[in-house]
Amino acid sequence: MLIDLGYRSRKILMLAIFMILTPACNFPSNVDKSATVEAMSRSISLTATAGASSELSSEDSLKTAQAEATIEGSQVAATQTALANMSDDSLAATEKAVAPILDQLPSYGVDPSQGRVAWAHPPASLEVEGYMQTDFINRYMNTTVEDFVLSADITWDTQYGSSGCGFILRSDGKEEESNQYMLILSRFGDGRAVFMTVANGELVDGKDMYAAGLDPRFNEPNGSTNQLTVIGRGTEFSVFTNGTLVGEVTVGRPPAPPPIPTPPPTPEDPGLMDKYNQLLEKYEEEVEQAQANYRARMAAYQKYDTNFERGFVAMAVFSESGQTSCLFENAWLWIIE
To answer: CATH code at 20?
Structure first.
């Protein structure tokens, strides 16, 4: 099921994506890192919904899924694990998958005796086409998590590098003004992982991780497969690609000020002054946009609670434009107890 963003969200995304694609063409800049976070998160922050799965198409089904995924007091306490509701085929698939999951856990610093498998998801494909489209899937939406490990092998095919595939984490399931964390893997910049905090539908903070620079096995081209794994323990999150730690995030902290790049050097040749003035004007625009984004994030941080202790998870696709497809295989969720 595709989710259409409103005009306001589309407008914000157009500006953010422009910021991503243009800085490196003119002069070295770190502003594009914060812009990467801005573009990816805005596309999803207002659209997360428990029923936004390719398997849920009717309005009634969507409302039912949203109601089931709403996380409030007694509902959280009464949430059943997905294992209790699996079909025979799904249960058999889960049992078969348990052994390799247990084998992987120690490499992530997780004790296999301190927890359980919540589910092992069958292969799932998400495909969207068009401008700023997103989609989500999880067959076991009733499962909510506190401390967890979520992992999947992701094969992507994207027309634009800033499109990507990833996870929605500890979401409250609201269609608008959602509270959730997001982790998106993209081909942008040879391969980046972006972790984002969205509170009440507003981007509060984000961390850009250069996966390709840390993970020697990272594969950027279309048709490639990378394993994405995230561990959440309270306010601490660890992100791995292909078994390599590429970043750690502590949520609930104030957003960091944006890095300010060095302005373009003044040319010695007077004949280059027109070009220099153009670069300087673009530089000043980028810096101002980065500072404006930071002010907005700081305001949101001061206004909202960003420590989401429990919520549901899903696999997700985000498309900047054109066609984007994500294949999730060997996906599993481990509950840390």
So the answer is: 2.60.120.560
Name residues whose C-beta falls within 8 Å of residue 106's C-beta, 6 or more positions apart in sequence. Answer: 112
Residue 154 to residue 165: CA distance in whole angstroms: 7
Q: What does the pLDDT look like over 243-263, one tens digit per residue? A: 999 999 999 888 888 888 888
Structural domain including 261 reads 7-336
Query: In angstroms, rounded to a whole number, what is the distance separating the alpha carbons of residues 108 and 335?
Result: 14
* Residue range 139-170, pLDDT digits in tens: 988 899 999 999 999 999 987 767 889 999 99
Within a domain: 2: no
Q: How far apart are CA 237 and CA 226, in angstroms?
A: 19
- 155 near 220, Cβ under 8 Å? no
Beta strands in the chain (DSSP E): 115-121, 124-129, 133-137, 144-145, 148-158, 164-171, 180-186, 192-199, 202-209, 225-233, 236-241, 244-250, 311-319, 323-336
The residue length of the chain stands at 337
pTM reported for the whole predicted model: 0.73
